[in-house]
Structure formats: structure tokens, C-alpha cells
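Internal tracking record. Fields below are filled automatically when a chain is submitted to the structure queue. Please do not edit lines marked as system-generated. If the sequence contains nonstandard residues, flag them in the REMARKS field before resubmitting.
Queue: standard
Priority: normal
Entity type: single polypeptide chain
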Amino acid sequence: VVAAMSFLGVRYRRGGSSSEQGFDCSGFTHHVFETSLGLTLPRRSRDQARAAGLQPVGRGQLQPGDLVFFNT
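SYSTEM-GENERATED OUTPUT FOLLOWS
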């Protein structure tokens, strides 16, 4: 969460994946997870939701930093 907060103010850009040019949602999660956790997520949200090895978490067990996907 701290790593993500460092990008406050970076503009939204569809297809964006850098702090210089801007991020879209999946570009942002891809970047933050890779730079802060060393976890390489796929670039697109659809692919992130289907990535192998990710653990499903119940709604009552969500914590800051967990990714939530809808209509997958």
C-alpha cells in the first residue's frame, strides 16, 4: 500500500504503464506488484484475474493491497 501511495497524482492514461506517461488500472497494479513485491502480474486485468498461483480470498478476509476483480 505504501508503494502504491507514492504514485498519488500520477495521471490516468488508457493503456498506460509508467509513472511518467500515466497508468491505467491494470498497468498500475502490474507496476506496483512487480516493483514492491517482485511479483510479475500479467499486464491486462483479465489476465491478472486468471493468473496461475493466485489465492482467492473471501470478502471478509480482504486486506489492503488485495486485488478484487468483477465479472471474471
